[in-house]
Design a protein that fits this description.
Elements lengths: L2 H10 L3 H14 L20 E3 L2 H12 L7 E9 L4 H14 L5 E5 L5 E5 L9 E3 L5 H17 L10 E9 L2 E9 L5 H19 L13 H28 L20 E10 L1 H13 L4 H17 L3 E8 L16 E8 L6 H17 L5 H8 L13 E5 L14 E5 L5 E2 L3 E7 L5 E8 L5 H20 L13 H11 L11 H11 L4 E5 L2 E4 H17 L7 E4 L5 H12 L3 E4 L6 H10 L4 E4 L14 E4 L22 E7 L7 E6 H14 L7 E4 L7 H12 L2 E4 L8 H11 L3 E4 L1 H8 L12 E4 L6 H10 L4 E6 L9 E4 L12 E2 L3 E6 L12 E7 L5 E2 L3 H7 E3 L9 E11 L5 E6 L4 E3 L2 E3 L1 H9 L4 E11 L2 E10 L7 H11 L8 E4 L32 H15 L17 H14 L6 H6 L3 H13 L3 H17 L1
Parallel strand pairs: 5-6, 11-14, 16-25, 18-19, 18-20, 20-21, 24-25, 26-27, 27-28, 40-41
Antiparallel strand pairs: 1-4, 2-7, 2-12, 3-4, 6-7, 8-13, 8-15, 9-10, 14-15, 16-17, 22-23, 23-33, 28-29, 29-30, 31-32, 32-35, 34-35, 35-36, 37-38, 39-40
Helix pairs in contact: 1-10, 4-6, 8-9, 8-12, 9-10, 9-12, 14-15, 14-19, 15-16, 18-19, 20-21, 21-22, 26-27, 26-29, 26-30
Length: 1113
C-alpha cells in the first residue's frame, strides 16, 4: 500500500474536530500560493486579430480535431414560452447578446506550430429560423418537432468558420413557442448558459418596453482571462498545483471496469440517453444533516454515495470520478460568457469493511484539497501524468459527477410570459456514465444518469439508479454500516435473481446408475450396448462381464467408499471395468495411461488406492507405489465368477468416482463425487435431451475428464448404443467423421477447441446422423456456434458448464443464432443453485460481474484427503437454502445477462491487466475468430521487459494465409488499442491437452526480442514523418516501430504533428489518425495512401521540398 493511501485511510478515520485541526495545521505549514494578480481588461486587438486560447479552449480544439462530428461537447437547451411572444424582440435580444459577448463571435484556427488561436469577429449575424408547427396534426407535429430538435442538437459545429451559437424558434400552438439554442463548449459552459438566459430576458424586456438594449460592459473580456491564466500558471502556480496532483494520483491510473451490456467501441463515439431518479426532499434534508455533522456539504454526501455505488458494482478499491468546477475564482469572470470550466479528479480508496461515515469523511478531505488545487488545467495534468491512451474514453477517469445546485431555478424577467426550461438530450455522450444532480425548488433532487446508449440498456441504468437511491438512504439513516453491508437490491431484483439462480426441480430419490443399466440389460438383453471397432457387446453381455469382474473386486475387498484405480485405454474392457467398480459398491479413479508415470504415482498415493485395474501392455507405464495391487484384466480368468448382479447396499451419499483436476500448487487434486449428484445430473440430461434405443452416443473424451462420465453412463441407462472411439481418435477430425458415419452417431461431445478443428475438416456435412452436439470445458466462441449451424444444420447445439467439483455440468444453454458475440452458459440444471457473488458474498445485480458459486445436489463431497482445501473452496451457504448446505467457489467470473442467462467471462485468478486496463481475453479471442482466415485463436498475457503484453496464437483455415500486421490493424478497428495483441504468432495448429482443450502451457514462448526493437525508418515518407516526430517530441532517434505516445506524445503534440504533416508534406492526416495509428510505420502508411491520391510528381516534389527544408534548418 502506498504512503499516500495510508495517509488517506488515516485521515478518513479522523473525527470532524480532529479533521479541522489537521486542516488548520496544513494551512499553517503549507507554502502559500502566490497571490493572484488582477485580471486587467485589455485593448481591442482589432478585427480578426489572433489571440491565445485558454487551456479549456485548447482541450476543446483538440477534441474537435479528433472527431469534428462529435456532438458530446454541445452546450444548450430550450426555452418554452407560454403567452404572447414578441418574435422580433426575441431576435433583437439574441443579436444584442452576441454583440455584447466576444465569445459568441469567436472562431478558431491553427496558428504557428499547429497550436490553436482564437479570432474575434467584429460582427456576427446569428439567424433564428422560425418554424410554424401549430397547423400540423399531433402525430405530424411531434415527428417534425423531433426532426428539428435532432438537427439543432446533432449538427456539428465548424470551429474555424462559426458561428458557434445557433437557434431555432418553433411555434407549437397559439401562444406556445419553443426557442432551441445550442453552442459549442469551446465558447461556453454551464455558468455561461445561466448568464445568457438572464441577459437574454433583460434584453427582451428592454426591447418590448421600448428601452435601449444596454447593460454595463463586462469587467473583462474572455481573451484577457486566457492571457492572464497562462501567465499566472507559468509564473509558478502551475507547478505548485501539479506537484499536489502528482502526489495525490501517483503513477498508477486505474481504469473503471464498469460492466456494460455491449462491448465498448474502439472510438468511444456514443450517443447519450438519460434516466432520472427523483430524490425526495426528506431524504435530501437527512443527507444534508449527515454531511453537516462531518463538516461537509450535500455535494460531498452525493459524491460519497456515488463512490460507494461504483465500488459495489465493480469491486475496485481505487475509484476515480471526474468533477467539473466552474473555474471562476476571480470576481472579474462572473459576467463573462466563455469556457472557464475545468475538471478535477476526485478519488476514493475503499474496502468492504469501510463504514459509509468514514468514506464521507474521506471524500470531505479529498474535496477540500481538490478545491485548493482546482486551477491546474485538466489537459495539462494529463500531459504531465501521461496515463495510457488505450482507453478510447477520457484518461484518468471514465465517469463524471456534476452537482449543479439550484439548477432548475425559475426563469423570470420575461414580460407577460411564463418560461420553462426544455432539456435537449439528443447529443453524444462524452463519458460512459455521468451523474448530474440538480437541487429543486421543492427541496428534492433530480439525479440524472446520462449514459452511452450503445453500451447500456435502459433497464440497466434504471437498476443502477435504484441502487444509488438505496445507498443514499443508507448514508442518511445508517452511516455506520459498511460498504459490504449495503443492501443494493430491491425485493423485485432479489426475487428475479432467485428465479434465475435456484432450480428446485427434482428427479426423485437417487438410484445408482448401474442399477438403471441393469434394468436395461433385463429388459433388452440382446440390444447392442457398446461398439468398439469391429467388436461389440450386447446389454446382456456387458452386464454379465461387469458382474463377474464386480464379484472379483468384492473378493479383493472393494465395497462402499473403497476407491479403485483404472488405468486402461479406451476399449470394451474400460467400459466393463468402470461399470464393475460401481457394481461392487466402489468408486472409480481414472488414471490416464497417457499421463506421466510420476503423475499417476502421485494420484495413486494421494487417493490412497489399494487396487488398480489395468492391462498387461500398460504395466511398464505405471510406477505404482509399494502396497498397491494391480489387476491386469487381460490375464484374469472369470469362469468361476457369478454372472448375477451383486447386491451391495448403497446410498446417494456414497462415493461414485474421483476425478483429478489440476491444482494451483502444481499438484492435482481429486474431486470426490457422490451417487446422488451423478443420478441427478444423468436424470436431468435424459429429461432435457432424451435419447433411446435408436440413438448412438460417441464416447471419445478421455476418461480422466468428467465429460466421459455422462458419455459412459447416459446412453447405457437409456438403452441407447455407446460407440467407443479408439485411443487417439479424439484428436483426429477425419477419424471422428468416419466414426460418426460408420456408427450413425446421433449425439457427441466436443470441447470447443476440438469442435473448431472438426469444423475445419472437409466433408463433415456427410455426418447427417448427428442430432445433438454438446459442448463444455471451455468458452464456446460464437463463430464455432455459427459454424455448426451452417455446416450441420440438422444438429441442435447445447452449451454446458460445470467444474469437476460438481457432477459434470451444472448449467445449460441451447444455442441459437441470435447475433450475440457471446454464447451464454445458461441457467442451473435440476436441483442446482448458481449464485453470482462479490468478494463479500453479496449477490451482485444483473449485468455485474462476480464469482460463480454453486450449490445443490450436484456438489462434490470435497477433495480427497484435502480437508483444508475443501474448507476453503466449499463454504457455508450464506443464503441458508438447506441445513448445513455449502456452496462451491468456482473461481470463474460470470454475470447474468439481460435475458437472465449466465455469461462466462473468464477465470478470476487469471484476470489479465494490461497497462492498467482489465482485459477479458475471451472478447479478444471472439474478435480474432471472427476473421475469415483464422481457424483457431487463443490470447495470453505474457510478461516482457516492458511489462505485461498480449500475445495471440492463431492458426489458419485450409488454404488461407495470415498476415499478423493486417490482423492487428483489423482488430484495431473494433477493439480499443489496449486490447489489440502486441504479438501475433501463427502456428500450424494450437496444442491440445488430452482433454481436448487448448494446452496453454504448451504454447511456444513469444520471441524474446523486444516488440519495439529499434528499426530505422524505411522510405522517404517514414523518414520525413520521423523527422516531424523528432522535432515535436524532442527525441533524437525515431524507429519505424516506435509508438508516438510511448515516446511522450500527448494530445497537444498530436495536433502539432498533424499541422506539420499537412503544411510540410501536403498530406491528409487527422488527429484521430494519430490516435488510431500511433506507430510510425502505420502512420506513414496513411500519409503515403493520401499521397497516392495525388499526381505522383506532385507527391514526390512535396516530400523532397520538406526534406530540403529540414536540411537547411
Amino acid at each position: 500500500m502506498s504512503e499516500t493511501q495510508n495517509l488517506s485511510e488515516r485521515r478518513a478515520r479522523l473525527t470532524p474536530a480532529q479533521l479541522s485541526l489537521l486542516q488548520q495545521r496544513l494551512k499553517r505549514d503549507a507554502a502559500p500560493a502566490p497571490a493572484r494578480a488582477a485580471i486587467v481588461r485589455g485593448q481591442d486587438d482589432g478585427a480578426d486579430a489572433a489571440a491565445p486560447v485558454s487551456f479549456a479552449q485548447q482541450g476543446q480544439w483538440f477534441l474537435w480535431q479528433l472527431n469534428p462530428g462529435n456532438t458530446a461537447y454541445h452546450v444548450g437547451g430550450g426555452l418554452g414560452f407560454s403567452g404572447p411572444l414578441d418574435i422580433a424582440a426575441l431576435r433583437d435580444a439574441m443579436q444584442a447578446l452576441v454583440a455584447r459577448h466576444e465569445a459568441l463571435r469567436t472562431v478558431f484556427r491553427s496558428g504557428g506550430g499547429g497550436l490553436p488561436e482564437q479570432c474575434i469577429q467584429t460582427a456576427v449575424e446569428v439567424a433564428i429560423p422560425f418554424i410554424d408547427l401549430a397547423a400540423l396534426e399531433a402525430p405530424a407535429r411531434e415527428s417534425r418537432h423531433a426532426e428539428v430538435v435532432a438537427d439543432v442538437c446533432r449538427t456539428p459545429f465548424d470551429l474555424t468558420a462559426g458561428p458557434l451559437l445557433r437557434g431555432t424558434l418553433l411555434k407549437m400552438a397559439d401562444g406556445e413557442h419553443q426557442l432551441l439554442l445550442m453552442m459549442h463548449h469551446v465558447i461556453s459552459d454551464a455558468w455561461s448558459v445561466e448568464l445568457m438566459l438572464d441577459e437574454l430576458a433583460q434584453f427582451y424586456a428592454m426591447r418590448v418596453q421600448g428601452l435601449p438594449a444596454s447593460l454595463p460592459q463586462p469587467e473583462i473580456r474572455y481573451v484577457d482571462f486566457a492571457r492572464w491564466q497562462r501567465k499566472w500558471l507559468d509564473d509558478g502556480e502551475g507547478e505548485r498545483q501539479l506537484a499536489y496532483w502528482r502526489g495525490r494520483l501517483g503513477n498508477s491510473h486505474p481504469v473503471l471496469a464498469l460492466a456494460t451490456d455491449r462491448p465498448r467501441a474502439a472510438d468511444a463515439d456514443y450517443s447519450a440517453a438519460q434516466h432520472t431518479l427523483h430524490v425526495p426532499a426528506a431524504l435530501v434534508e437527512a443527507l444534508k444533516r449527515q454531511a453537516c455533522e462531518q463538516g461537509g456539504t450535500l455535494f460531498m454526501a452525493l459524491l460519497t454515495a456515488f463512490h460507494a455505488l461504483l465500488f459495489r458494482h465493480t469491486g475496485q478499491q481505487a475509484i476515480r470520478v471526474g468533477v467539473p468546477v466552474a473555474g471562476r475564482g476571480r470576481s472579474e469572470t462572473s459576467g463573462v460568457i466563455g469556457a472557464f470550466i475545468n475538471t478535477v479528479v476526485l478519488d476514493a480508496r475503499m474496502h468492504g469493511q469501510m463504514r459509509l461515515a468514514d468514506l464521507l469523511r474521506q471524500v470531505h478531505g479529498v474535496s477540500l484539497e481538490a478545491q485548493a488545487h482546482q486551477d491546474l488545467p485538466f489537459e495539462r495534468l494529463v500531459q504531465a501524468l501521461r496515463p495510457e491512451r488505450g482507453h478510447a474514453g477520457s484518461p484518468l477517469f471514465q465517469v463524471m459527477f456534476n452537482h449543479l445546485g439550484q439548477g432548475d431555478r425559475p426563469l423570470q424577467g420575461w414580460p407577460a410570459l411564463r418560461v420553462r426550461r426544455i432539456d435537449l438530450a439528443q447529443r453524444a455522450a462524452p463519458f460512459e456514465l455521468t451523474l448530474e444532480t440538480i437541487e429543486r425548488a421543492d427541496g428534492g433532487i433530480h439525479a440524472n444518469f446520462r449514459y452511452a446508449a450503445e453500451l447500456f440498456e435502459p433497464q440497466t441504468i434504471e437498476r443502477l439508479a435504484g441502487h444509488y437511491a438505496r445507498v443514499l438512504e443508507a448514508l442518511a439513516a445508517q452511516p455506520a454500516s459498511t460498504l459490504s453491508e449495503l443492501d443494493l437490491l430491491g425485493a423485485a431484483e432479489k426475487e428475479q435473481l432467485a428465479r434465475w439462480s435456484i432450480n428446485t426441480e427434482s428427479h426423485g430419490n437417487a438410484v445408482p446408475v448401474h442399477r438403471l443399466i441393469e434394468r436395461q440389460a433385463t429388459g433388452h438383453p440382446d440390444a447392442a450396448a457398446v461398439l468398439f471397432g469391429d467388436a461389440s457387446l450386447s446389454y446382456g453381455e456387458l452386464n454379465r462381464h461387469a458382474n463377474q469382474l464386480a464379484h472379483r473386486l468384492i473378493e479383493e475387498g472393494v465395497g462402499p467408499e473403497v476407491k479403485v484405480g483404472i488405468a486402461l485405454e479406451r476399449s470394451l474392457e474400460l467400459v466393463t471395468a468402470v461399470l464393475a467398480v460401481l457394481k461392487a459398491g466402489g468408486a472409480y479413479v481414472p488414471l490416464d495411461p497417457e499421463y506421466p508415470a510420476d503423475r499417476i504415482a502421485y494420484m495413486v498415493e494421494d487417493s490412497k488406492l489399494g487396487l488398480v485395474l489395468t492391462h498387461s501392455s500398460l504395466a511398464d507405464r505405471l510406477a505404482l507405489p509399494a502396497g498397491v495391487s494391480a489387476l491386469a484384466l487381460d490375464t484374469l480368468e472369470f469362469g468361476g465368477m457369478p454372472q448375477t448382479d451383486p447386491v451391495v447396499a448403497l446410498s446417494g451419499e456414497n462415493l461414485a468416482y474421483v476425478i483429478y483436476t489440476s491444482g494451483s500448487t502444481g499438484r492435482p487434486k481429486g474431486a470426490a463425487n457422490r451417487h446422488a449428484a451423478l443420478h441427478n445430473r444423468l436424470a436431468w440430461m435424459q429429461a432435457a435431451y432424451p435419447i433411446d434405443g435408436a440413438d448412438t452416443v460417441l464416447q471419445k473424451t478421455p476418461f480422466s475428464f468428467d465429460v466421459s462420465v455422462w458419455e459412459f453412463f447416459w446412453p447405457l441407462m437409456a438403452g441407447a448404443r455407446l460407440a467407443v472411439a479408439a485411443p487417439g481418435d479424439h484428436r483426429e477430425p477425419a477419424r471422428l467423421a468416419h466414426l460418426i458415419q460408420r456408427h450413425s452417431v446421433s449425439t457427441l461431445h466436443f470441447v470447443p477447441s476440438m469442435l473448431q478443428a472438426f469444423l475445419a475438416h472437409d466433408g463433415i456435412e456427410a455426418c447427417t446422423s448427428l442430432r445433438q452436439i454438446v459442448c463444455s470445458g471451455e468458452a464456446l466462441p460464437a463463430e464455432a456456434q455459427q459454424g455448426v449451424f451452417k455446416r450441420l444444420p440438422q444438429a441442435a447445439l447445447h452449451n454446458l458448464y460445470g467444474p469437476t467439483e460438481a457432477a459434470i455440468d451444472v448449467t445449460h444453454w441451447t444455442c441459437r443464432s441470435d447475433g450475440r458475440s457471446q454464447v451464454p452458459i445458461g441457467r442451473p440444471i435440476a436441483g442446482t443453485q448458481a449464485f453470482v457473488l462479490d468478494a463479500d458474498l453479496n449477490l451482485v445485480p444483473p449485468g455485474v460481474a462476480g464469482e460463480l458459486y454453486l450449490g445443490g445436489i450436484g456438489l462434490a463431497r470435497g477433495y480427497v484427503e484435502r480437508a483444508g482445501l475443501t474448507a476453503e473452496r466449499f463454504v457455508a451457504d450464506p443464503f441458508g437454502t438447506a441445513q448445513g448446505a455449502r456452496l462451491y467457489r468456482t473461481g470463474d467470473l460470470v454475470r447474468w445477462n439481460s435475458e437472465g442467462q449466465l455469461d462466462y467471462l473468464g477465470r478470476i485468478d487469471h484476470q489479465v491487466k494490461i497497462r492498467g486496463f482489465r482485459i477479458e481475453l475471451g472478447e479478444i479471442e471472439a474478435q480474432l475468430l471472427a476473421q475469415p482466415e483464422l481457424r483457431e485463436a487463443v490470447v495470453v498475457a505474457s510478461q516482457g521487459s516492458g511489462g505485461a503484453r498480449l500475445v495471440a496464437y492463431v492458426s489458419a483455415q485450409a488454404q488461407q494465409a495470415i498476415d499478423p500486421a493486417q490482423l492487428r490493424e483489423r482488430l484495431g478497428r473494433v477493439l480499443p488499442d489496449y486490447m489489440v495483441p502486441a504479438v501475433v504468432l501463427v502456428l500450424d495448429t494450437l496444442p491440445l491437452n488430452p482433454n481436448g482443450k487448448v494446452d496453454r502451457k504448451a504454447l511456444p514462448p513469444p520471441e524474446q526480442a523486444s516488440a519495439h526493437a529499434y528499426e530505422a525508418p524505411q522510405g522517404e515518407v517514414e523518414e520525413a514523418l520521423a523527422a516531424i516526430w523528432a522535432e515535436v517530441l524532442g527525441v533524437a532517434r525515431i524507429g519505424r516501430h516506435d509508438n508516438f505516445f510511448e515516446l511522450g506524445g500527448h494530445s497537444l503534440m498530436s495536433v502539432q504533428v498533424v499541422a506539420r504533416v499537412q503544411r510540410a508534406m501536403h498530406a491528409e492526416l487527422s488527429v484521430k489518425d494519430v490516435f488510431q495509428h500511433p506507430v510510425l510505420a502505420a502512420m506513414a502508411g496513411l500519409v503515403a495512401a493520401a499521397a497516392a491520391r495525388k499526381p505522383v510528381a506532385q507527391s514526390l516534389s512535396d516530400i523532397d521540398s520538406f526534406i530540403d527544408s529540414l536540411e537547411i534548418a
